Amino acid sequence: MEFANKEYLLLLLLVIPYVVWYMMYRKRTEPTMRMSDTYHLHFMPRSWRVMLMPVLPILRILAFVLLVVAMARPQTSNSWKNKTVEGIDIMLAIDVSTSMLAEDLKPNRIEAAKQVAAEFIAGRANDNIGLTIFAGESFTQCPMTTDHASLLNMLRSVRTDIAARGLIEDGTAIGMGLANAVSRLKGSKAKSKVVILLTDGSNNMGDISPMTAAEIAKSMGIRVYTIGVGTNKVAPYPMPVAGGVQYVNIPVEIDTKTLGQIAATTNGEFYRATNTSELHNIYQEIDKLEKTKFNVTKFSKRYEAYQTFALGALLALLLELLLRVTVFRKLP
């Protein structure tokens, strides 16, 4: 908590002379009665009113302190706050072709990919992370950001039916997906720039070949980690039929050679994930990447917080006055 008018806090020093005055001179202001001998009065028990008399000056001091704090205008921290954190710039490129509905990974390839990617994002709070999706075409779902809550919301909304509904062409344009992700890292000043590309097929669409995109990434100092998801040979695929779903076995055709060449060209790594557990382990390994420093600007709302202290001062003063004229009332 900060104070807009810190100079008012110096008034708290006045509490010291008041306490000294109260301790030294309070007895002189109390009414007295002359008696020939007060020796026996020393052994008389003190009433609870006498024992609680110091409550009055304590309440007065408390009211004064709270009033001074309120005058100093306590506030939250400044609206904009810059800090340096550790992180890298990462673009996730995820295949959303209809073949990602195959259920060799549980519950299916796309949901397993989204779940593991979400865990990866949650574990890297200081990183700039963005999301590109591709099928027969590619586009950016979310540019690089440290607002991971928004990124995760966009990741959850990713579905494979955008190709099935004709919003984009179906197919697997690995080169286009990689090129799109690389373009988002073009202006990055981070020392470490990474693309994590996940697919379950081989390049069969797009105007840019995977190796051309890999050479572009290499020229920009971007490492590409490629992941091929899917079991070997065949995988169960839900085929919609009248009144329900019929499962058929579709061949698994992952171009491991090209994915390996992309990783090798960019000084990255190629991984194969035949189940959800392996996919999770792959992301854990990638999580050990090098970190670099960059500045993050965060916004926090600023508001006045004096109201509580002013109210406390008023209540303490009213309580002191009430006790003085009732319970601790003195007769002249």
Question: How would you sum up this structure, described in words?
Answer:
- This protein is of the alpha/beta class and 332 residues long.
- 36% of the residues lie in helices and 23% in strands.
- The protein contains eleven helices and twelve strands.
- Strands 6-5-4-7-8-11 form a six-stranded mixed sheet, with helices on both faces. A two-stranded antiparallel sheet has the order 1-2. It has a two-stranded antiparallel sheet with strand order 3-12.
- The model has no long low-confidence stretch (mean pLDDT 85).
Mean pLDDT: 85
Instruction: Give the spatial strand order of the biggest sheet.
Output: 6-5-4-7-8-11
Number of strands: 12
Radius of gyration from the alpha-carbon trace, in angstroms: 36 Å
Largest sheet composition: 6 strands, mixed
Low-confidence stretches: none
Quaternary structure annotation? single chain
Structural class: alpha/beta
How large is the count of helical segments? 11
Report the β-strand fraction as a percent range.
15-25%
The general outline is: elongated
Q: Kindly state the percentage of residues in helix.
A: 25-40%
What's the SSE pattern? EHHHEEEHEEHHHEHEEEHEHEH
Distance between the termini: 47 Å
